[in-house]
Amino acid sequence: MSQLHPALTYHITNSLGWSHLRPLQKSAIPPLLAGEDALLVAPTASGKTEAALFPLLSRMLSEHWQPLSVLYLCPLKALINNLSDRIEYLCGLVGRSARYWHGDLSQAHRKKIRLDAPDILITTPESLEVMLVSRTFNHRTFFTQIRAVVVDEIHAFGGDDRGWHLSAVLSRIQAISAFPIQRVGLSATVGNPEGLLTWFKGDAERPGRVICPPAGPRAKPEVILDFVGSYENAAQVIAQLHKGEKRLVFVDSRSGVERLTALLRAREVETFASHSSLSQEERAISERAFSESRNCVIVATSTLELGIDVGDLDRVIQIDSPSTVAGFLQRLGRTGRRAGTHANCLFLATDEMRFLQAAGLIHLWGTGFVEPIVPPALPYHILAQQVMALTLQEDQLNPSNWENPLKSWPALKEMGAQKEELIKFLLDQGILFSDQGVWMMGEQGEKQYGFRFFNALFSVFMAPLLLKVLYGRTEIGEVDPANFFAKEHLPVISLGGRGWKVEAVDWQRKEVQVQPLPGNGRSMWRGSGPAIHFELAQACRQVLLGAELGCTLSQRASNLLSELRQDMAGLDPASLLMVNRAKSIQLWTFAGSLANLLLAQCLTDCGLKTQPSVYFVESEARSGAQFQAVWPKVLQMAQQRIAPTLSPEMESGLKFAECVPDQLLKKCLQKRWGCSHAINQLAKTNPNLMENPDFR
């Protein structure tokens, strides 16, 4: 602490009443004071905000930084609202200021910031870009003093297109600032922290380091897996368990949140809801009421997975399963913060497919695996968006140096000469217009993305694409678009504990129409279900082979797991299980959603019509011998294709797809949805024919 500015040290000790700093906060001081880039990695509630701000405030005082000197970027407006008072207080202790900015602010609030810039601005990347483009801002004056940027919850950006957008906007800010901008990322546990830091740094030559001090001794988390079979039963369990405690329940769909909230309220449980379809005001009211209550429940989607403070929690309950270990760690870290408590999570599985997924996830967590954060490949569509945004920002672009504001953006180097192909397409389509040696917005660009419509240009990266599933007019859930890659493979999906036959996909409305399937057979052996990655699917296989979960099982869960293992008694660790059904052959690959879709397409092209599932592919082969005869060719085809063939609707579902040439769009999506690792792993094993096991 002695390395910090004396005024700051005084207030940490006397105003905050801190006698010492946490390990992360201590470790961050030397490199951040030296101006190094850094990725601060620690669980939720480890003091990451102070770990970043204490050294930056110290530099601000010692080096006499002028406003605006620090940007603090968040993935959600709710997180901004949650953090702003805390950051403003810390700044105020040393005579500096902080303000927040997002789309819900009044014009008076925005005008005050424009006329009197704070030392620290708390905002989102999208709002930052609006400021760059807005005609009411002199962006060259406003951003010229920027010295540092802090990105909170950077793992929430890095794995999708919002990360590329963030990186591009920071490159444009760097082109305006008179100073090299220090970059500080705050992250939960990820599988590849060094890789995430390298991507975040861009082309900066400054030293950078991952700061992740060893965690102190902590009690082992209490993780329990239960099978309840329905939302109604889940509501009954939640209503009866842990009365008098604060419970945060995660449900991975908005319709599921609404359904469970209604069921709990019907049981006279004080219940609040939070998901992205609710207005910001409604969510804020729910979160505030929950934080001030004691005996209550809040039901939320991943909106509360990030570091939004809803007060001290006693319990986390997960309906079914998240799709990643990283997401589970975020949720688990919401509890166990008070002295004498420990982290805990109760899984309540509502159907057998999701029970197996939850079991696989818990097993994967027990091995220490955490998904790496990998930016999506070849973001041509983000480059198109950035070129249009730059055109609005500068009124016109010079063809000889248009890349300069983006020169520190890593994606630009990855694209090579293809960026010129993209520019030519924008000009040919009238999105850009060349006049007297400069580029301006063309007629089509103005019509779709000009100043009158620029919300379409900047509000695009806020949420991953999910498709709403409708039975008639009733919404029954949401599904990943990976289930619908090709028209000839409209799948059966599993939602709400039953199977549904997909009748139609409306990409424009982002809706899927379904009909219920007859019969009472096990839904887990039928549907595509939620899209899951190869490692999680393989973990589910290991669970069926007898792997220990490392958690507590309820009696119901233990009984179901025994039944599932008995059902799959033909599984062998060294080979793939091939099941000869009455009119089909099932190959149990446990390769995940994308790899099985690719295999199904290759089998179909070899003359064996095939449907994919999460865990297997089912072919109309007449015999196991016929299937085995084509399998080597199928694997070879899959290795050559890399990714499933996409339907035109899937291609056009990507935002700004209309701004990218077809061949570049196909290349982008093929690279993003590639599954070479899964296919190569399958190529190392041979199908093992097993005659008709007792599947119920």
Keywords:
about 700 residues, alpha/beta, Arc Repressor Mutant, subunit A, 7-stranded parallel beta sheet, 27 helices
Task: Describe the fold and architecture.
The chain is of the alpha/beta class. Among the domains are: 6-211, 3-Layer(aba) Sandwich (Rossmann fold), CATH 3.40.50.300; 222-350, 3-Layer(aba) Sandwich (Rossmann fold); 380-457, Orthogonal Bundle (Arc Repressor Mutant, subunit A). The strands form five sheets. A seven-stranded parallel beta sheet has the order 3-4-2-5-6-1-7, sandwiched between helices. Strands 10-11-9-12-13-8-21 form a seven-stranded parallel beta sheet, sandwiched between helices. The protein has a five-stranded mixed beta sheet with strand order 17-16-20-19-18. A hairpin with a 2-residue loop joins β18 and β19 (498-506). The longest helix has 18 residues, at 624-641.
Strand order in space, largest sheet: 3-4-2-5-6-1-7
Radius of gyration: 26 Å
Can you identify the CATH class of the domain at 6-211? Alpha Beta
Kindly report the CATH topology of the domain at 6-211. Answer: Rossmann fold
Task: State the total count of DSSP E strands.
Answer: 26
Shape: globular
Q: Structural class of the helices, strands and pairings?
A: alpha/beta
Q: Tell me what the CATH architecture of the domain at 6-211 is.
A: 3-Layer(aba) Sandwich
Q: What kind of sheet is the major sheet? A: 7 strands, parallel
Relevant CATH superfamily of the domain at 6-211: P-loop containing nucleotide triphosphate hydrolases
